[in-house]
Each structure stands twice: as C-alpha cells, then as structure tokens.
Fold:
Amino acid sequence: MNYHWNWGILLQPEPGGTGSYLHYLFVGLGWTLLTALAAWVIALAIGSVVGTLRTTPHKWIVRLGNAYVELFRNIPLIVQMFLWFFVVPELLPTAIGDWIKQVPPPWGSYVPAVLCLGLFTSVRVAVQVKAGIGSLSRGQGMAGTALGLTLGQNYRFVLLPQAFRIVLPPLTSESMNVVKNSSVALTIGLLELTGRARAMQEFSFRVFEAFTAATVIYLLTNLLVVIGMRMLENRVRVPGLIAASPTAGGH
Amino acid sequence: MSGYDFDVIQRSWVYLFRDGMTFTLTLTALAMIGGIFFGTLLAMMRLSKFRLLGLAAGGYVNLMRSLPLVLVIFWFFFLVPYIGAWVIGAKDPVKVGSFLSAVITFTMFEAAYYCEIMRAGIQSVARGQVWAGYALGLNYWLTMGRIVLPQAFRNMLPVLLTQTIILFQDTSLVYVISATDFLGAASKVANRDYRLVEMYTFVAVIYFVVSFGLSSLVKSLQTRIAIIR
Structure:
C-alpha cells in the first residue's frame, strides 16, 4: 500500500495547544468513559425498574413497559441524539430552552448525550432483566408467595437477587456496547475518542495513524471492561448454577 | 408545539423518500446480502478444522465487534480508496463515492455480526446430519450447501432478520461521512429551512414505523416457521 506511516505525529503538539496528539486522544478516552459510565448508571437504574415491571402481574403496567421498550428500540441512536440535542430544547418552555442552548461546551453536548445513551441502553438492560427473571423456575416466586411474602418482598428477596446474577454476562456485552455507542455523540459535537481521532485526522492529515491509535485504545478499553466484569461475575456467581454463557447481541 | 410547520414535510417528502429512503433501503439490502454471504463464510472458517482459518476469522470478527461502528465507517471511508488503488494497481488512491464506501463498510462490519448468528445456526444442526451427508459420499461443500446451511438458515431466519432491522437503523450513521441517506436528506432540508424540530421528529416517526412494523412481522414469522421437535 502506498502510504507513508509517520508515528512520530502522535508526540507532536495538537493545534489547540493542550499537549501532544496522544494526550489529546487520551482526553477523548476520558470523555468516552465519562459519557459511558454516566449513561450506564442511568441505564441500569431505569432498565432494572422497567424490566421488573414488565414481569409483574399487572397488565397495564406491562403494556406501559412494553411501549417504553418499543419506543426506544425502534429509533436509530443517532436520530435519538438529534432529538435530545435539537428538538427537546425547542419543546420545553422558551426560558428553559434558551438556558439549555447557552450551556457552554462540552457540557452542552455531554448532558443530552448521556441522557440519550442512558435511555437507549436502559431498554436493552430492561430486556435482559426481564429475560433473567423469566429464566427462574416458577416455583421460586410461588415459594415466596407461599411463605407469605408480598409481591414487592418477593422481587426484593427472592427473584431479583437471582435474576441479576444470571444476567451479568449479557450485561457485560451491553456495558461494552455503551462504550462503543458513546461514539455517536460526536454527531452532536462531543469530542470523545472517535471524534478526536477524526479531528486529529483533519488537523494533521495523518489518517491511519489517528484511527489506528483510536482503534488500539478502544481494544484496550474493551479488554479492561471484560476483565472487570469477569471478576465481578466470579464474585457473585450463584453456587450450583451452570454459569450462563454470554449471548451475541446487536450493537 | 405552537408553530409546528407541517408544510416543510409536505414540501420535502418526495425528496426525502426518492433520494434518502432509496439510499437507505438499497444500502440495507446490499449490506444484508453481502453481510450474510461473508458472514456465512466467516462462520464456516471459524468452525473449520484448519486452526489458522479459525484464528483469522475469529480475530476479524472480534476486532469488528469491539470497535464502534462510527470509527469503522471512518476507517473504510479513508481505506477503501487505497484498497481500490492496490486492486487496480494505480499509484494514487482512487476516488470512491460515499455510497460505494458505505456498502463496503456495512458489508464488512455486519459480516462479523451475521457470522456469530450463522455460527450458532450451524452449531444448532444435529451432528448426525453431517455424518449422514458424508456417509452418502458428499464432500464438505455439498454437505454444507445441501444439508447443513439450509437448516441453519431456517433455524436462524428470525435472528438474521432482526439483525437486518438493526442494520437498517445503523445505516443512519452514514451521516458522519455526509452521505444523503434518509436522515442525511432530512438533515439537509432541516438546516436549509431551519426546521430541525419538524424534520427530526418526522424522521424518528418514519424509522419507528418501519422498524416496529418489520419487527412485528418477524415475530409472527417466528411463530409460523418454528420447527416443532
């Protein structure tokens, strides 16, 4: 291939004057992780609640949960980003909308990106949690009821502690998806890792050095996430159960 | 919601569907066909008895699955001109349009995901089927093509279609290379007429209707073609 590599570019200063290009990319990784982490907290919180509600015996609550899942699952992530960034401030009362538009960067893109990614991912968590509860034997819930537990206590003490441990492996792949999906936030102006690799390519004209560096950083991050989640899985494994294998999911 | 301008949609919907949606649907269809073809080959490589083939395919699939699609789109957008030059032996990178670039990107990216589905599909076929094929004197390709793959496809059809719906939604990311897909077309109109609220909600509604409709179809198909064992 007719391309002259120049890895020295990574150590040269970027035009913004914050340091070398490598440093510039690592700050991007920081934003990627900050976005993914905050979104992951939202996703776990809402996803657990919605996933649980979808298994309750109340029909209309289940329907509401299903509607929530279908809504966020059937609109592309980038379109949802645009809705949060461009449309939501316009639909709010004018004063609040104007205030939101004046939030200085990068927070002006960060907050909508986190909300968007959090809700988008919460749906996937909800699906996994529901599947986890569904995979428990029916006798577990019945035994809880027979012992005199209320519906809430049954979930709290019998069903959810088991379900969460079962869904940990699929949640691992979801937590990696959050990191990957956070790159879509570059479309609303958040300079995370992919966005900075793209910017570096534009400043320095070193296309493949920039993308190779970003690729390596993403691979290392994935590796760390997987190792961390494996450790967590080993720690909370239910004795006596065959560990569930991770399932292939979308992206 | 006051001042919601439906007129801008009325003025632009022909352009949105004729240019934008055609791009999106063609890209989805081509990437699905290419992705399933290469994905099946990759799955066969991963399951082959030649370790090197398995390692190469596994490495490729894991690499693609651990990178963000946006980064992969950028990679191929800049890489394809160089590959093109290498293929035809030209000295300088060749010019490649955003459509061709997108088709190649999504084919190669989705192949990794289709590979995992097809791998599960091939593994879901009973071993005896393969033995029976060999016992009848069929070679590897005939056993695969006539016996294993048809069953694997049938078993995995709902999952393959679900992945295609995800692909349909993911094609909207070609926005980052300024291609005029459905979202790109809407975004151009939105910025020209300063009608972002109307255009983006319209885009969201259309994507929702198409994806939701298709996934409902897949669900009903799933119950119809399920093999009772």
Q: What stands out?
A: The mean pLDDT of chain B is 91.
